[in-house]
Amino acid sequence: MLPLDNPGGHMDAAECLWAQLTERGFALSAKGDVLYVNPGQALTADDYAAIRANKPDLLKLVRERGLEQTAPGSLAVEATSENPPGPDQCPNCYRPLDPIGCCWRCCNRRCNDCGGMTGSAFILLCMTCEYAAKQKGIL
Ligand SMILES: [Zn+2]
Ligand SMILES: [Zn+2]
Description:
- This protein is of the alpha+beta class.
- The chain folds into two domains: 1-84, no CATH class; 85-139, no CATH class.
- 29% of the residues lie in helices and 12% in strands.
- The protein has helices at residues 12-23, 45-53, 55-64, 127-135; strands spanning 27-31, 34-38, 75-76, 102-103, 108-109.
- The structure holds zinc ion (2 copies).
- One zinc ion (ZN) binds at residues 90, 92-93, 95, 103, 105-106, 108.
């Protein structure tokens, strides 16, 4: 691709990522400043990280291409204050948490005590609550 209509050059990574994603059957859309990818369930952690790294440019492309309609099953790439995750959703990737409060995609888990995230799907309490429990002699 010749960079003639792209003097900044910084859109190349986003354009390239866009092309790769659409080739694999993904559709990008946006609502406000939240970028959505459909089908969200099919995204790998690497895709997710790449999309996140290029989010501002991808959002610009979505707007330029008039694709601001989100489809059902789309995954929000990032939570915002206007679009907070629900109690059953991972605050990082918006995937539904499993019945014990884990997001296996992010390998994170909702703290049994405070409802924050513990940093690992295998840790039941966040550091603060674990410390508090130790102080109280529970653990
Ligand atoms: Zn997650
Ligand atoms: Zn906690």
